[in-house]
Amino acid sequence: MSLESLVEEIRQHAEAELRATIEQQKAEGIRIVADRDRRIAELRAAAQRATEAEAARERAQRIAAAKLQARKLLYEAREQRLEQGLRETRQLLADYTASPGYPAVLKRMVEVATATLGRQLRISGRAEDAALLAKAAGKAFDAAPQPILGGLIAETTDKSRRLNLSFDELLRLREDEVRELLA
Hints:
The chain is mainly alpha-helical. It has helices spanning 3-96, 102-117, 130-137, 167-173, 175-182, and strands spanning 121-124, 153-156, 162-164.
């Protein structure tokens, strides 16, 4: 073997190693680019999922807030309607005190108070009803006026027992039932 053939063989061997190294670098570059593209795609997909989850959560919160606001508005409207109904009921009771049947109701209330509390009692009511109550209750009538819509308040003379038959109290005791009727 001659020197030239040895040099040629070394050159060919070096060129082969160089080609193998270049091929290896190209393959490594392709693998790196593919890995980078895969990681970018994964990051984009994760970001997309996170964005969709955040949007869904925000949408759910807004829907829940809107539903709560709607319920609140509905409740407020219902309460306003019920309060208006109660005001109208109070007005009807106030108007009833001017009706021809009201004196009979007062007389019946005096009878109930007497039957419940006994004969030793004081009966009071509105200033406007003084004449009616004096007639129905007789000596048991107390002229001190009460700030009520109508009806009467009866109390034993020793003040141990009291029966409030005022329209105000009767309406207050039945307010839940009235609300159900108005709803």
